[in-house]
Amino acid sequence: MNAFRSAVTFHQSKPAPCGSSERENLPIGDSAVVIAYARCPANLTPLQVTRGSEYEFYVLPDQRWIDFFIPSGPDGYARSLIAPIQERFRKCKPLPDANWFALAGAIDRPTNHPFFIGSGPKLVPFNAEGRLILFANDARGFYWNNFGCLTVVITRIR
Q: Most buried in the list 23, 27, 34, 68, measured by CB within 10 Å?
Protein backbone atom coordinates (compact mmCIF):
# COMPACT_ATOMS: atom_id res chain seq x y z
CA MET A 1 0.00 0.00 0.00
CA ASN A 2 1.23 3.42 -0.90
CA ALA A 3 1.95 5.53 2.19
CA PHE A 4 0.27 8.52 0.57
CA ARG A 5 -3.40 8.67 -0.36
CA SER A 6 -5.54 11.44 -1.71
CA ALA A 7 -9.31 11.82 -1.37
CA VAL A 8 -10.94 15.20 -1.81
CA THR A 9 -14.33 16.55 -2.79
CA PHE A 10 -14.54 20.28 -3.35
CA HIS A 11 -17.71 22.23 -2.70
CA GLN A 12 -16.95 25.48 -4.51
CA SER A 13 -13.60 24.83 -6.11
CA LYS A 14 -12.90 22.53 -9.04
CA PRO A 15 -12.36 18.86 -8.09
CA ALA A 16 -8.90 17.34 -8.06
CA PRO A 17 -8.69 13.74 -9.28
CA CYS A 18 -8.05 11.16 -6.56
CA GLY A 19 -4.37 10.29 -6.44
CA SER A 20 -3.52 13.35 -8.46
CA SER A 21 -0.36 15.34 -8.05
CA GLU A 22 -2.35 18.51 -8.82
CA ARG A 23 -2.14 21.25 -6.25
CA GLU A 24 -4.55 24.08 -5.76
CA ASN A 25 -4.62 27.30 -3.82
CA LEU A 26 -8.08 27.36 -2.27
CA PRO A 27 -9.63 30.81 -2.80
CA ILE A 28 -10.42 32.80 0.35
CA GLY A 29 -13.89 31.84 1.60
CA ASP A 30 -13.97 28.50 -0.26
CA SER A 31 -14.16 25.16 1.52
CA ALA A 32 -12.96 21.67 0.72
CA VAL A 33 -14.21 18.40 2.19
CA VAL A 34 -11.34 15.96 2.73
CA ILE A 35 -11.34 12.35 3.93
CA ALA A 36 -8.51 11.50 6.36
CA TYR A 37 -7.89 7.74 6.55
CA ALA A 38 -6.56 6.39 9.86
CA ARG A 39 -4.32 3.82 8.16
CA CYS A 40 -2.57 6.39 6.00
CA PRO A 41 0.43 8.11 7.62
CA ALA A 42 0.08 11.07 5.23
CA ASN A 43 -3.28 11.77 3.56
CA LEU A 44 -2.40 14.07 0.67
CA THR A 45 -4.79 16.88 -0.04
CA PRO A 46 -4.55 18.90 -3.25
CA LEU A 47 -4.42 22.05 -1.12
CA GLN A 48 -1.31 24.14 -1.47
CA VAL A 49 -0.97 26.41 1.56
CA THR A 50 1.03 29.60 1.35
CA ARG A 51 2.93 31.63 3.90
CA GLY A 52 0.53 34.08 5.57
CA SER A 53 -2.60 32.08 4.74
CA GLU A 54 -5.01 30.90 7.42
CA TYR A 55 -7.39 27.93 7.34
CA GLU A 56 -10.17 26.68 9.58
CA PHE A 57 -10.51 22.92 10.15
CA TYR A 58 -13.68 21.26 11.36
CA VAL A 59 -14.54 17.55 11.62
CA LEU A 60 -18.14 16.58 10.92
CA PRO A 61 -19.85 15.47 14.19
CA ASP A 62 -20.08 11.95 15.63
CA GLN A 63 -17.15 10.45 13.74
CA ARG A 64 -14.76 7.85 15.09
CA TRP A 65 -11.73 5.98 13.91
CA ILE A 66 -9.94 3.07 15.58
CA ASP A 67 -6.37 2.65 16.82
CA PHE A 68 -5.89 -1.15 16.90
CA PHE A 69 -8.90 -1.89 19.17
CA ILE A 70 -9.30 1.57 20.76
CA PRO A 71 -12.13 3.70 19.33
CA SER A 72 -11.33 7.39 19.23
CA GLY A 73 -12.80 10.66 18.08
CA PRO A 74 -10.78 13.35 16.28
CA ASP A 75 -9.45 14.70 19.61
CA GLY A 76 -7.70 11.38 20.26
CA TYR A 77 -7.15 9.82 23.67
CA ALA A 78 -4.56 10.32 26.42
CA ARG A 79 -4.20 6.80 27.84
CA SER A 80 -5.38 3.28 27.11
CA LEU A 81 -5.04 -0.23 28.49
CA ILE A 82 -1.71 -0.50 26.72
CA ALA A 83 -0.35 2.79 28.12
CA PRO A 84 2.99 1.29 29.28
CA ILE A 85 3.70 0.11 25.73
CA GLN A 86 2.49 3.35 24.18
CA GLU A 87 4.69 5.42 26.46
CA ARG A 88 7.76 3.72 24.93
CA PHE A 89 6.68 4.97 21.48
CA ARG A 90 5.35 8.41 22.44
CA LYS A 91 8.31 10.24 20.89
CA CYS A 92 7.69 8.41 17.59
CA LYS A 93 4.48 10.40 17.06
CA PRO A 94 4.63 13.53 14.88
CA LEU A 95 3.20 15.46 17.88
CA PRO A 96 4.67 13.63 20.93
CA ASP A 97 2.78 15.72 23.50
CA ALA A 98 -0.62 15.58 21.76
CA ASN A 99 -3.15 12.81 22.35
CA TRP A 100 -2.76 9.49 20.62
CA PHE A 101 -4.81 9.32 17.45
CA ALA A 102 -5.74 13.01 17.42
CA LEU A 103 -6.37 14.41 13.96
CA ALA A 104 -3.31 16.40 12.93
CA GLY A 105 -1.93 18.13 9.88
CA ALA A 106 1.41 19.18 8.44
CA ILE A 107 3.02 20.54 5.29
CA ASP A 108 4.38 17.99 2.79
CA ARG A 109 5.23 15.31 5.42
CA PRO A 110 4.16 14.54 9.03
CA THR A 111 7.37 15.88 10.58
CA ASN A 112 7.29 19.24 8.75
CA HIS A 113 5.44 21.88 10.81
CA PRO A 114 2.94 19.41 12.37
CA PHE A 115 -0.10 20.89 14.12
CA PHE A 116 -3.02 19.59 16.18
CA ILE A 117 -6.51 19.84 14.65
CA GLY A 118 -8.78 17.64 16.78
CA SER A 119 -12.51 18.05 16.23
CA GLY A 120 -12.29 21.79 15.64
CA PRO A 121 -13.16 24.32 14.72
CA LYS A 122 -9.43 24.99 14.69
CA LEU A 123 -7.93 28.09 13.08
CA VAL A 124 -4.40 27.51 11.76
CA PRO A 125 -2.15 30.27 10.39
CA PHE A 126 0.65 29.05 8.11
CA ASN A 127 4.16 30.49 8.20
CA ALA A 128 5.48 28.06 5.59
CA GLU A 129 4.22 26.82 2.25
CA GLY A 130 3.65 23.42 0.69
CA ARG A 131 1.09 20.68 0.29
CA LEU A 132 -1.32 20.17 3.19
CA ILE A 133 -1.50 16.65 4.61
CA LEU A 134 -3.72 15.15 7.34
CA PHE A 135 -3.08 12.14 9.58
CA ALA A 136 -3.82 10.41 12.87
CA ASN A 137 -1.18 11.24 15.51
CA ASP A 138 0.20 7.71 15.85
CA ALA A 139 3.68 6.21 16.18
CA ARG A 140 5.63 5.68 12.96
CA GLY A 141 5.33 2.09 11.82
CA PHE A 142 2.00 1.47 13.57
CA TYR A 143 -0.45 2.77 11.00
CA TRP A 144 -1.11 -0.79 9.76
CA ASN A 145 -3.44 -1.48 12.72
CA ASN A 146 -5.61 1.61 12.23
CA PHE A 147 -9.14 1.62 10.82
CA GLY A 148 -11.75 4.14 9.73
CA CYS A 149 -11.68 7.70 8.50
CA LEU A 150 -12.80 11.22 9.38
CA THR A 151 -14.47 13.77 7.13
CA VAL A 152 -12.80 17.16 7.52
CA VAL A 153 -14.11 20.50 6.24
CA ILE A 154 -11.29 22.93 5.45
CA THR A 155 -12.07 26.60 4.79
CA ARG A 156 -9.56 29.23 3.73
CA ILE A 157 -10.00 32.29 5.94
CA ARG A 158 -7.06 34.46 4.79
A: 34
Q: What is the pTM of this model?
A: 0.83
pLDDT of residue 71: 95
Q: What is the number of structural domains in the chain? A: 1
Domain residue limits at 91: 4-14+24-156
Question: Is residue 90 in a domain?
Answer: yes
Q: Whole-angstrom Cα distance, residue 10 to residue 18?
A: 12
Residue 19 lies in a domain: no
Whether the CB-CB separation of 33 and 8 falls below 8 Å is answered with: yes
d(CA 35, CA 46): 12
pLDDT at 18 over 50: no
